[in-house]
Amino acid sequence: MTKTELERLYILNGPNLNRLGKREPEIYGHTTLAEIEAWCRDAAGERPVEFRQTNSEERLIEWVHEAIDEGAAGIIINPAAFTFTSLALLDALKMFQGPIIELHISNIHRREPIYHRSYVSMRATAVLAGMGAEGYEIAVRAMERLIEKGKV
Q1: Is 93 within the bounds of a domain?
Q2: 52 in Cβ contact with 15 (< 8 Å)
Q3: Residue 143's Cα: distance from chain center in Å?
Q4: Which residue range is the domain that position 55 belongs to?
Q5: Which residues are annotated as a binding site for substrate?
Q6: 57 CB contacts (<8 Å, ≥6 apart)?
Q7: I need a labelling partner for 124 at 20 to 30 A (CA). Which of 34, 109, 141, 144 fits?
Q8: Tens of pLDDT, residues 48-64
Q9: Could you list the active site residues?
Q10: β pairing state of 9-13 and 74-78
Q11: Which residues, at least 6 apart from 30, have a Cβ–Cβ distance to it below 8 Å?
């Protein structure tokens, strides 16, 4: 298959992730979102990648709708704070027929109790948390396996 024949992988990032490298480096490290994007594109190989970040819940939901309409191969999503607040995002993700990996740079379960309940986990095929920025590359490789196996 050529690059144009492969279904796209959507990697969606929620609020404040544009501040990676500057925001709370003791939790999130010094790696920037641009560096993470480059790692993801390398890990995806020939598979086309839509890598996006927004501080808007509405825009994040619209991108999930786009992934549905475009027949995306899978979604890797770091919804950031929307993880714990957005039923609307959960409802959008429930419409997606492919695999979804929920991703968090920090281990949300080692943090304050407010970070322990994820709405996104109710739909996610898998959850990856606490691997730092490197978790993105791990998630891309894991997504390829999920796609190959047809797992949702």
Answers
A1: yes
A2: no
A3: 10
A4: 9-149
A5: 78, 91, 105-106
A6: 14, 82, 86, 88, 89
A7: 34
A8: 999 999 999 999 999 99
A9: 28, 104
A10: parallel
A11: 21
Q: Extract the tokens encoding 21.
A: 């490298």
Question: Would 2 be classed as within a structural domain?
Answer: no
- Tokens 């925001």 appear where? 23
Please give the Cα distance from 40 to 137 (Å, whole number). 5
| Best CA proximity match to 116, nearest among 107, 104, 105, 108 | 108
Answer whether 122's CB lies under 8 Å from 68's CB.
no
- The tally of domains found in the chain comes to 1
Q: Distance (Å, rounded) from C-alpha 144 to C-alpha 71? A: 15
| 4 found inside a domain | no
Q: Is residue 94 part of a domain?
A: yes
Q: Which of 50, 48, 51, 49 is nearest to 6 (CA)?
A: 48
CATH of the domain at 142: 3.40.50.9100
